[in-house]
Design brief:
alpha+beta, 5-stranded antiparallel β-sheet, 5 strands
Length: 124
């Protein structure tokens, strides 16, 4: 039996980290990712393709809505890259950030990484 590959998508996420950070700084946006890009890094797909959803609050992974981390190497590796980025931690302070990767309905050959950023209202 072959050895399981680990962290195979981290190089990809590191290559677009500046784009992700810019989206966060701008208050959120969508990034287009070609399906072939994911396939070229490892091709590991779940039954839902490369779709995932992960959430952060104040730069920390939340317990809510992060089941993708256990079933998706793509999501797990994005979390690894973001968690090790001091710039992400700084930009995410005082914010809730939701990452959702989904297949583009109009163009099945690409995915959209939707980044939603909301300021936390502590009611002060």
């Amino acid at each position: 039996m072959g050895k399981k590959k680990v962290n195979i998508y981290e190089p990809f996420w590191r290559s677009i980290l500046n784009d992700i950070l810019e989206c966060i700084e701008d208050g959120g946006d969508d990034l287009e990712i070609k399906r072939k890009t994911f396939e070229s890094y490892g091709g590991e797909r779940t039954s839902s393709g490369y779709d995932f959803s992960i959430n952060y609050e104040n730069g920390d992974l939340t317990l809510y809505g992060n089941s993708s981390l256990h079933s998706s190497a793509v999501a797990r590796d994005l979390n690894n890259v973001l968690s090790s980025s001091l710039i992400f931690k700084k930009l995410a302070t005082g914010k809730r950030i939701h990452f959702r990767c989904k297949q583009d309905r109009m163009d099945k050959s690409q995915y959209l990484l939707c980044i939603e950023v909301n300021t936390i209202d502590y009611g002060v």
